[in-house]
Amino acid sequence: MLAGLWARSKIFLGCGCASLLWYDNIGYVHTVRGQSMKPTLNPGPTRALLRERVWVSKLPHTPQRGDIVVFRSPKHGQRLAMKRVSGVEGDVVIPSKTGKTGETSVVVKPGHVWVEADNHETAGRDSNEYGQLHTKMIVGRVTWLVWPWERIHDLRWTEAPGRTEAPGRTEAPGRTEAPGRTEAPERTEQG
Amino acid sequence: MSSKRILEWLNKNRPLNLPTIKQVVGISLGTYLFTSRVLTTASVSGPSMAPTYNANSSTSLLLVDLVTSVTKVEPGEIVLVHDPEEADGYIVKRVKALAGQFVEHDMENPGVFLAKHSYEGKYSVPTGYCWLEGDNPGNSTDSRKFGPVPLGLIRGRILCKLLGS
């Protein structure tokens, strides 16, 4: 009897393991909550089936400026947050609000990124509040909006709205002059 | 030869006790999942956790529990944490205080962080963070230098030492 049980549960175990492997290494569907990424991503109606959902890719990728990333929020333990990377290692960032440090400009440390909300009106639980984000807190990168069906589109090379003169802009040091950088970091193609 | 025939040949001709391809793949993936989500080992070197781990000239092998949620970490436990000062790499330190708890420091040697952020000799750990210190305070780069660490950087708890002194 035990042998039959094992044979049957093998399928479930196999599917379970395969799903976990996929979830850990390929990606998953994430539901948008919160207003901080409007208008790019909208939490929308309260009916769960209609909420916007995005594909979060967990394929290996170095965060680049303009990426929307999902990460463990520093201030809120295990909760996941979704913001846009506006500064990477070496960039000089001018925070839109002086926040906790009161500094007017911040140099992003190695292994960290500066994230900001697209929605300028929200109080913005982003780097303006908690400073630079360690890249190991990042869980994945938002690549596509996958729901609702009619709005499926690629989110990868989008820009935060109205960013050219807004405070909180990032000045990338000229690529050739930045220490240790001789060429633009490669943009890795991820699905 | 097609790949299907190769697989058939391999399965038919394996010596009696060796596993099939399916079993090998299954066991490898299962092991990978286990070591990335349940238990894994970490090898540590460096003097910062002496005398608990005497890893200055040799390395110690530690068993890491990855399952326990980061929110259940208690002060006094030793954890494996992503190095907050580097892009990659881990550090092993003891949790001294959690969010809302106070860290006190001696006035003579507060360390870079506490010198700037403590008030009347005490510092309150902010929500979502923890305070880490090595057991060998004289020779340890820890929260006294880089400040509190977000809980999200904790990879797992150290359960026990497997090898080393």
Structure, described:
Helices cover 15% and strands 25% of the residues of chain A. Chain A is built from two helices and eleven strands, in the order αβββββββαββββ. Chain A is globular, with a radius of gyration of 19 Å. Chain B has 165 residues and is α+β, with helices and mostly antiparallel strands. Chain B contains four helices and nine strands, in the order ααβββββαββαββ. In chain B, the strands form two sheets. In chain B, strands 1-2-9-3-4-7-8 form a seven-stranded antiparallel sheet. A two-stranded antiparallel sheet of chain B has the order 5-6. Chain B is elongated, with a radius of gyration of 22 Å. Chains A and B meet through helix 1 of A and helix 2 of B.
Could you give the topology of this structure?
The complex is a heterodimer of chains A (about 190) and B (about 160).
Chain A: H1 2-25, E1 27-31, E2 53-57, E3 68-72, E4 80-87, E5 92-93, E6 106-107, E7 112-116, H2 127-130, E8 133-134, E9 138-147, E10 153-154, E11 170-171
Antiparallel strand pairs in A: 1-2, 2-9, 3-4, 3-9, 4-7, 5-6, 5-11, 7-8, 9-10
Chain B: H1 3-13, H2 21-37, E1 39-46, E2 55-65, E3 78-82, E4 90-98, E5 102-104, H3 111-117, E6 122-124, E7 129-133, H4 143-146, E8 149-150, E9 154-163
Antiparallel strand pairs in B: 1-2, 2-9, 3-4, 3-9, 4-7, 5-6, 7-8
Shape of chain A: globular
Shape of chain B: elongated
The percent of residues in helical segments of chain B reads 10-25%
Secondary-structure content class of chain A:
alpha+beta
Largest interface, counted with CB-CB under 8 A? A-B, 21 and 25 residues
What can be said about this structure in brief?
The complex is a heterodimer of chains A (191) and B (165). Chain A has 191 residues and is an alpha+beta fold.
